[in-house]
Amino acid sequence: MGSTPEHGRRPEYGRRDLIKRAAAIGLISVPAMSALSACASGGDGDGGKQVDKGKKSEKNPLAVNEKAALDVVIFDGGFGQQYAKDAEAEYRKAFPDAQVKHSATQEIQTQLQPRFNGGTPPDLIDNSGAKQMDMGTLVGKNQLTDLTALLDAPSYDDPAKKVRDTLRPGVVEMGQFEGKETWILYYAYTVYGVWYSKTNLQKLDAQYPETWDEMLKVCEAAKKKGIAGWTYAGKYPYYVPFSLYPFIAKIGGVEVLRRIDNLEPNAWKDPAVKAAFEAYYELYKKGYILQGSPGLTHIDSQTAWNQGKALFLPNGSWVENEAKKTTPQDFRMAVGAPSSLDKNSDKMPFGTIWASGGEPFIVPKNARNPQGGMELLRVMLGKKSSRNFIKSVSSLTSLNGGTEGLTLPSGLASSQQVLEAAGRNVVNPRLQDWYVALQKEKIGVAAIGEMMAGRLTPDEAITKIQRFADETAKDDSVKKYKHK
C-alpha cells in the first residue's frame, strides 16, 4: 500500500501467463504487494551496456564496479527520501570513486516507463506510490533482475549470515511470483488498524475498547463532549478496510478473507461480513462519524484526527510520519487491533491485526549497474540504515529487528507492541493486490464509501460487492489468483 491512497489498475499479464503471486504462509500471509499502474510495454531490448563487474571480495561480495556510477530513483511519499540519501552516503564511503545520482518523484510510472522502454532504466527504484509500475508486467516482460544474489550475499553487519537470514518471515516470498526467483524487496513493514490518541482517550477517562460494545460507549461519551468517534478518508474509502477486513477475519476466521480473495461464489455473504458491516454502519446511524468525512482526503482526515475532532482513524503505520506536521507533541499516537464483536463467538482473539510489506524496491534487468543497485539494498538492510529509517520515518523495516537500543516514537512503539501481541494472528488480505480496480473503485468507492456515508445499507452494500466480485470472477481479461 505504501504511503499514498492512490493505486493504479493492474493490467492483464500478457506474455507469461504462468506467473502467480506468492501465496499465504500459514496464518501469516506474505506481505501484500502494492497495487500498481501499467508500465513497461517494451520488450527485452538490450538497452544500455552494463558496466563490467568489479573484483569480488569480503568487503565487496556482489562484485560491484568501484568506479561505476549508480542511478537511484526514490518515491517521494510519506517516508520521504532522506533515508535513501543517508544509505547512499554509506555507499559512497565504500566506493568513493563512484558517482551516485539520486532522484525523487511521485510520478514513478510516468517518468520511468520511457526509460524502461528505451532500455536505460535506473539501477535501483523504490516503485511505490499512486503511479507505480506494474510488477506483474515488469516480471512478465523480463524487465527485472533476480535478487537471489543479494539474498545469498553476506549480510552487511554479520558476514556469517546471509541477507535472507536477517529478514522478517515472508519477506523473501512476497517478492516471488512462480519459482525461486525473487524480483522485489519490500523494505518497509506496515501495521494497519484503528489509530488513536492515548491522550485524547485519557481525557474521556477511557482506554482503547477491546469489545464493540465498549467502542460504542466510548463514541457516545465523545459525542456528548462534541467529539466524533471516527473519521476516515472519505474520498479514498478503501482506507476503511485497513480496520474492517481484519475485523471480518476476527469475527469469522481468516478463511473468510481467503474465500473473498479467491472470488468464491457468495463469499461476501458470509455472516461475518454482514456482522462487521452492520457494526460499522452503526457508527453512521448513531452519529459517531465526523460530519463531512465522506468529502475528506487522507490528509484532511488525519489532520482532523490530530486536532482532536475525532478519536479513531483507520490507517497504516506510515500515518505517524505523514501526519507529523499536524500531530501535537502530547498526542501519544497508538494503533489498536479490531475490537471483539463477541468474545465468545469470534473465531480469532482480540489482537488479530493486519500487517504486511510496503515500499517495493526493484533492480531493472537492463540497469547499467545492477550490482550497485543490489549493494545499496544490502547497505539499507544493515542495522545502521535500518535504524536510521526507523528513527526518521517511524516505520519498521523488513530487517528482523533493528529496534534494539532505540527510543521509539509512540506510534511505532505501539505498532511493534500489537505485532508482538498478535503472534500468529496476523492476516494479510490480498484483494487490494490481486484485483485493484475491484477493491478501489467498486468495493471501496461504490460500496463501502456509500455505506459509510449512509447512502447504502449493509445488505445493499454486500449485494453490490458480491455482484462486483462475480463480474470480476467471470471476466476472462482479468488474471485470477488463488491462495494455496
Automatic annotation (TrEMBL):
<protein>
    <submittedName>
        <fullName>N-acetylglucosamine/diacetylchitobiose ABC transporter substrate-binding protein</fullName>
    </submittedName>
</protein>
<dbReference type="Pfam" id="PF13416">
    <property type="entry name" value="SBP_bac_8"/>
</dbReference>
<dbReference type="InterPro" id="IPR050490">
    <property type="entry name" value="Bact_solute-bd_prot1"/>
</dbReference>
<dbReference type="InterPro" id="IPR022386">
    <property type="entry name" value="Chitin_NgcE"/>
</dbReference>
<feature type="compositionally biased region" description="Basic and acidic residues">
    <location>
        <begin position="46"/>
        <end position="59"/>
    </location>
</feature>
<dbReference type="InterPro" id="IPR006059">
    <property type="entry name" value="SBP"/>
</dbReference>
<feature type="region of interest" description="Disordered">
    <location>
        <begin position="40"/>
        <end position="60"/>
    </location>
</feature>
<keyword id="KW-0732">Signal</keyword>
<keyword id="KW-0813">Transport</keyword>
<comment type="similarity">
    <text>Belongs to the bacterial solute-binding protein 1 family.</text>
</comment>
